[in-house]
UniProtKB/TrEMBL annotation:
This is Hpt domain-containing protein. Residues 15-113 form the HPt domain. GO terms for biological process: phosphorelay signal transduction system. GO terms for molecular function: protein kinase activity. It comes from the Bacteria.
Length: 113
């Protein structure tokens, strides 16, 4: 398991509906954001890469995915920085994708979504 519900549990203060709604939003939004990010990387639309990585970052942070958050931050920074950062972004993206897809599968299994 590469996610942790510690942050969500702290925010929820025992409200299981809140926890499930946060997870539902993650499962609803993040897969599409990930697809859009991959498409933006493929089309070298670095402004969009920056925006999508920035959007994914708090979602993975909320699930305690510190390494994944760090990779999203690196991609976000590279997308915002002028110059040809495409190769660096392309090198980092597979780790982000792998972790996010793994957590999506784990959450669907763990919470019967």
């Amino acid at each position: 398991m590469i996610y942790s519900l510690d942050k969500i549990n702290e925010m929820a203060e025992g409200d299981t509906d809140f926890i499930e709604s946060v997870i539902a939003v993650f499962l609803d939004e993040v897969p599409q954001d990930l697809k859009n990010l991959e498409a933006a990387i493929d089309s070298k639309d670095y402004e969009k890469v920056y925006k999508l990585a920035h959007k994914i970052k708090p979602n993975v942070d909320l699930l305690g995915m510190e390494q994944t958050r760090a990779v999203a931050l690196e991609i976000e920074t590279l997308g915002k920085t002028p110059g040809d950062n495409g190769p660096a972004i392309e090198q980092k993206f597979p780790a982000l994708k792998k972790d996010v897809l793994q957590v999506i599968a784990e959450l669907k299994n763990d919470f019967n979504f």
